[in-house]
Amino acid sequence: MNPVQLALRVLRADRRTRVATLLTAVGVAVATALVLLLASLPMAAEARAERALWQQPQYELSTGGGATISWSSSTDEIDGELITRVDVAPLVDPADVTLPPGIERLPGPGEMLQSPDLATLARERPPAELADRFGAEPVGLLGDDALRFPEQLVVLVGHSRDTMPDSAMELSSFGFGDAEPDELLSLLAGVGVVVLLVPSLVLVASASRLIAARRERRLAALRLAGATPAQVTAMVAAETGLAAVAGAVLGVAASPLLHRLAAFVPWAGGTWFAGDFVLPVWLVVPIALVVVVLVVGAAVAGLRRVVNTPLMATGTGYARKPLSWWRLLLVPAAVAVFFWTLTQASRQDGTMLPMLVALGVLMWSPSLVGPWITSALGGVFVRRWRRPAALLAGRRLRDDPKAAYRASAGVVLAAFAGSMALTLMPSLEAESGYYSQFREEVLYLTTSEDRAAAIVADADEALAGYGLDVRAARVDHADITSGQELHMAVVATCAEAKRLLPGTEGLTCRDAPAIYASQPLDLAKAGVHDPSTGSTVPLPADAPVAPMPAAADVVVVDPVLWPSGAPAQGVSVAVPATEKSREIVRTALLGASGGEQVISKEMMLGQQDTQLADLRRVTVIGLVTASLLAGVSAAISTAGSVMDRRRTFGALMAAGTPVRTLARALRAEAALPALVATLGAGALGTAVAVGLFGLVSQSAPVFSPWIAAPVVLGALVALLAAAVCAPALRRVRAEPLVDE
């Protein structure tokens, strides 16, 4: 009889083996589906980026006669949602312009193509808040192949060559080709493979433990009856391989459903198209095979005791060796090495690779220290027990700490990664922000000196037409030198400076034009710096100088006093807006400039907020998933522990031990390792996060209540593991021990 036939016969004859095989298959299916999902994330991000290449600037500009389009891109926003705007004008016959997928035709001057969601939003909002921004009539919709994600707000506005924004570039074509990979998502996918694959494999191992004692006795009997090590190994490989192959097939079949669910999880501002997660067959098959090989290899590797000493597997002459105390030193040593590599990485020429290797060793170290701590905890119970349940739990933790800790291995890694992320994110969020030369309520754009006056006039006309009494102002920026000192200067009237610049609330304006400075300014030595020539244009020596509040930290020069011929390093058009008028002011500026980039606080902070929200979401999903897997594996491991000790529990019950006492002991031995390991891993992850944050900031880290989430989930895992104790014991009491 070949090994496969023998494995099938065992499955038909033994109901518990069938249950264990089914659970093993489910564990393999979960592991396979998760790995396939995580492996598809970088490819999905690349697919969405390739669809949006036409929306991004191409750095290989066309020179000479190869240009076919004049192209410009800018970002906009409404109600916190990002709008991507692309302005285009053909430089050749529009029929000769190669269009990206999803764009059926090139819009002509005064025409535009919108994404479906933007078109719907423009119809729902008043024209002054959105539709008037584009200065064009909608003539069609962009297809899915032209959108980064389904909800993307994007518009393609047609122009003639002379109406394009100042930032326009001449390109040979729209963007095509391969997109750059999303490095952050690729990194998170790699971390996710470790954080989620380990609990999945622990689930598989826990399912195998349901029949561990029975399988060892069966295989030991076969060895003692004359079976060779190769035959025993083949039997286990066949038995495990049937479950692993079935689970891998089930995981591959279930992965499209998991991909469809993942498509609803936002990333970088939007969800996904279902086709983004399609993996090629040449990648699916190797992933499934690797998972199967890992499971079968782990089962075969656990046969050493049966193969070499079958008498020990039957329980004769076998005693477990106590764990060495040196395990306890591994975590402090790993922490010391990590922080040493961290100091090396913080240097300007330091490399990150040693630090990443040290971090990997640090994440692995609790798997060696955990069993020792579990054993020590059991020793405390044995020495200081007050109830029989504490003594029983202590003996189990003391005698077999590796098995007691094994079920907690998955949640330990999840707690470590979760604590690290939940410590870093509030600290990074506190670091977020932006610098602007204008007040937070001001919207502004940068333009050229030639166009500034026209933009101000058109914006004022639009603002008046919309019924707003606010007006636009031109503000020039330059550098003023005074001896060895360099000052930032703003060319604007005092009233405009007080209306637009931060820190000018206490500024007292004079009736006549003046220069306002927060520091002493010697006009005899002061002049406007020209960076193109290195020369200096003197300021009027007789100009009055008035005090400026120190908080402003800028020199304000009235336009009347600005020397003729003095260059401006930048020209802005700015308009202050209230919460109610922001969208209308943005529309007026965009309409007046023909699509120049309008800058505001919400625009600058929106990308940071989106990225932090993505990280929080991914962390929560990963931590909850890993904890659920660890909880299920802990519950199965607890049930397997009961099944392995049926004789012991049966004897205790026959001797009069109450089932509730045994259940209490089982709950303690299942819950305590998970709680202790989670607390330790959480503290370790927090310490690592503090060190990593020191690489990017000199500020003190920020600790939020979310840092306790891994500990809470660890407690839930412990409760889930303990919940199966009483049902498993009732099953032991109901089954006749003669079956063993």
TrEMBL record:
<keyword id="KW-0472">Membrane</keyword>
<dbReference type="InterPro" id="IPR003838">
    <property type="entry name" value="ABC3_permease_C"/>
</dbReference>
<dbReference type="GO" id="GO:0022857">
    <property type="term" value="F:transmembrane transporter activity"/>
</dbReference>
<comment type="similarity">
    <text>Belongs to the ABC-4 integral membrane protein family.</text>
</comment>
<feature type="transmembrane region" description="Helical">
    <location>
        <begin position="403"/>
        <end position="425"/>
    </location>
</feature>
<feature type="transmembrane region" description="Helical">
    <location>
        <begin position="355"/>
        <end position="382"/>
    </location>
</feature>
<feature type="transmembrane region" description="Helical">
    <location>
        <begin position="707"/>
        <end position="729"/>
    </location>
</feature>
<feature type="transmembrane region" description="Helical">
    <location>
        <begin position="277"/>
        <end position="303"/>
    </location>
</feature>
<feature type="transmembrane region" description="Helical">
    <location>
        <begin position="232"/>
        <end position="257"/>
    </location>
</feature>
<feature type="transmembrane region" description="Helical">
    <location>
        <begin position="324"/>
        <end position="343"/>
    </location>
</feature>
<keyword id="KW-1003">Cell membrane</keyword>
<dbReference type="InterPro" id="IPR050250">
    <property type="entry name" value="Macrolide_Exporter_MacB"/>
</dbReference>
<feature type="transmembrane region" description="Helical">
    <location>
        <begin position="670"/>
        <end position="695"/>
    </location>
</feature>
<feature type="domain" description="ABC3 transporter permease C-terminal">
    <location>
        <begin position="623"/>
        <end position="735"/>
    </location>
</feature>
<dbReference type="GO" id="GO:0005886">
    <property type="term" value="C:plasma membrane"/>
</dbReference>
<keyword id="KW-1133">Transmembrane helix</keyword>
<dbReference type="Pfam" id="PF02687">
    <property type="entry name" value="FtsX"/>
</dbReference>
<feature type="domain" description="ABC3 transporter permease C-terminal">
    <location>
        <begin position="193"/>
        <end position="310"/>
    </location>
</feature>
<feature type="transmembrane region" description="Helical">
    <location>
        <begin position="620"/>
        <end position="643"/>
    </location>
</feature>
<protein>
    <submittedName>
        <fullName>Permease</fullName>
    </submittedName>
</protein>
<feature type="transmembrane region" description="Helical">
    <location>
        <begin position="184"/>
        <end position="211"/>
    </location>
</feature>
<keyword id="KW-0812">Transmembrane</keyword>
